[in-house]
Design goal:
This protein has about 350 residues and is α+β, with helices and mostly antiparallel strands. It has helices spanning about 10-25, 80-100, 145-150, 155-160, 170-190, 195-210, 220-225, 225-230, 235-260, 265-275, 280-295, 295-305, 315-320, 340-345, 355; strands spanning about 30, 45-50, 50-55, 60-65, 70-75, 110-115, 125-130, 135-140, 325, 330. A hairpin with a 5-residue loop joins strand 7 (about 125-130) and strand 8 (about 135-140).
Length: about 350
């Protein structure tokens, strides 16, 4: 747990200062578009219910229809007239996350919203900290419309990190890949874009990863461990996204063969049920997912991707789903072997009722 207890005495106080200086970096499991000059300082806590603002000096939590709680904290420099819009945006992203397997992966997590002081885009920065409960911090441009906030990928990416019990201690490509994959899946399922756009976005991401060849002499696992030096974000993130897509396809193919319901959504739901009370490495997660799906899919792909010197082949798995590429543009072939599986990835487990999605 990323929790420090109070210490007594001078020597213990010095130890605490050292631990804090080390822990500030370690506790930030995932961050994107980082610009520390754009982060507010003090927080005030504001709770919402039924789209009406409720203010208090202590934390306020909200229960959704599945009896899961969440807390929204606003920076003190966010005007009152902006908060309802920001709440609607954050709630929209929570709804999208619940469309993976029907509920939030973490029973209680905190969303912290801060005002940008000049960053580009609607949401120039986001970060996940694996506290207890976890915290997702988002920096926003207050002048952005609700539509622009919803269309920005950052919140979906950060929320998707919560789908695995993982603190980015190793194999960052593994965790960032999951978030990159599901940021697109959840946006599509919540209605931000159609199926063809979903596959176009995934294909474009794989293409960006494929173009980063300046570290082709380094394996993905080594490259990922040194991301701060090489800054090969596209190869690292999109190799990871392809890992999860290939696992998803393999599970759905297994389901078709054995007439048993398998999918990445279901596998992650089982992982949430068994293992969210601890931190696990990428290798431990892959082994656990294999155990839960009675397969070797995750560990075999982990070995393949860790040892890769470029993003692996993505055109073949896309074609198997009926995703054809002509001059960089996607077209859908409904006669493909895994046409039904492709459609299921887009739709999800089911069209959840509006009652459960609120």
């Amino acid at each position: 747990m990323n929790i420090l207890k109070p210490y007594l005495g001078v020597s213990s106080y010095l130890i605490l200062l050292v631990l804090l200086s080390i822990g500030l970096t370690a506790m930030s499991a995932h961050s994107h578009n980082i610009d520390l000059n754009h982060i507010g300082d003090e927080l005030e806590v504001v709770g919402f219910k039924d789209d009406r603002l409720l203010q208090s000096e202590s934390k306020s939590t909200i229960k959704n229809s599945l009896n899961q709680s969440y807390t929204i904290n606003f920076a003190a420099n966010i005007p009152e007239d902006k908060k309802a819009k920001l709440y609607t945006w954050a709630n929209h992203a929570r709804k999208a996350l619940r469309l993976v397997y029907g509920k939030l992966p973490v029973e209680d997590f905190v969303t912290i919203i801060k005002a940008s002081k000049g960053g580009k885009g609607a949401v120039p920065w986001g970060e996940v900290n694996r506290y207890s409960p976890p915290e997702v911090t988002l920096v926003v441009n207050l002048d952005s419309s609700l539509e622009a906030l919803k269309a920005d990928w950052t919140i979906y990416h950060e929320f998707s990190h919560l789908l695995i019990p993982y603190d980015a201690g190793d194999a960052r490509w593994f965790s960032e890949g999951l978030a990159s994959y599901y940021q697109n899946i959840t946006q599509a399922r919540v209605g931000m874009f159609d199926e063809q756009t979903l596959w176009q976005k995934l294909y474009d991401g794989f293409e960006r990863g494929n173009k980063q060849q300046n570290y082709a002499h380094q394996r993905l696992d080594y490259l990922s461990d040194h991301i701060g030096e090489n800054r090969n974000y596209m190869r690292i993130y999109w190799s990871g996204a392809l890992y999860w897509l290939k696992a998803d396809i393999a599970l759905r193919a297994l389901a078709q063969k054995n007439a048993i319901p398998y999918s990445l959504d279901l596998a992650l739901a089982k992982l949430q049920a068994c293992c969210f009370d601890r931190y696990l490495s990428a290798t431990e997660i892959a082994h656990k997912l294999d155990q839960l799906t009675e397969s070797k899919i995750f560990t075999s792909l982990l070995s393949e991707f860790s040892a890769s010197y470029a993003i692996p082949d993505y055109l073949t798995p896309l074609r198997s789903l009926g995703v054809e590429v002509i001059n960089g543009q996607i077209s859908i072939n409904d006669q493909a072997i895994y046409n039904t599986q492709r459609r299921a990835i887009f739709i999800g487990l089911s069209k959840l009722s509006s009652k459960n999605a609120r």
